[in-house]
Amino acid sequence: MVIAEAMKYRYNRGKRENLLFFRDAKGHEVDLLLTSANDLSAVEIKAAQTFKNEFFKGLEYFNTYIKKCTHSLVVYNGERNEKRTKGTVTDIHHMFDWLE
User: Fold this and answer.
1) Cα 66 from Cα 81, distance rounded (Å)
2) Per-residue pLDDT tens for 28-80?
3) Are 28 and 60 in contact (CB under 8 A)?
4) How far lies 30's CA from each of 10, 12, 97, in Å?
């Protein structure tokens, strides 16, 4: 649902549909990648209402072994919105600010 909403959000604003998904042969994945000029942003989407540091696991792997991202974002069903060393933690409503 979150990915569908992200696609609709960008489409309704006339933005490019430059949203991707990553998964390698070993099962490492990133739920959503957004490319823009020279920037690459990665998003991990979680249904949980309580944030856990392990939510950054897939983003850390991608940043270390695949390609360094400009932004790393964890979207979850809670109320925290904060910047951390590993990236940004936000709720679904604030994710749309990032999609601009």
Assistant:
1) 27
2) 999 999 888 888 999 999 999 999 999 999 999 999 999 999 999 999 999 88
3) no
4) 19, 24, 19
Looking up tokens 């964890």, which residue turns up? 74
Q: Single out the residue of 30, 35, 33, 43 nearest to residue 90, CA to CA.
A: 43
Burial class (CB in 10 A: 0-12, 13-18, 19+), 72: buried
Determine which helix (DSSP H) or strand (DSSP E) holds 73, and give its type and residue range.
strand 71-76
Helix (H) or strand (E) holding 23: strand 19-23
> HSE (CB half, 13 Å, CA atoms) of 97?
10
d(CA 77, CA 47) in angstroms, rounded, equals 5
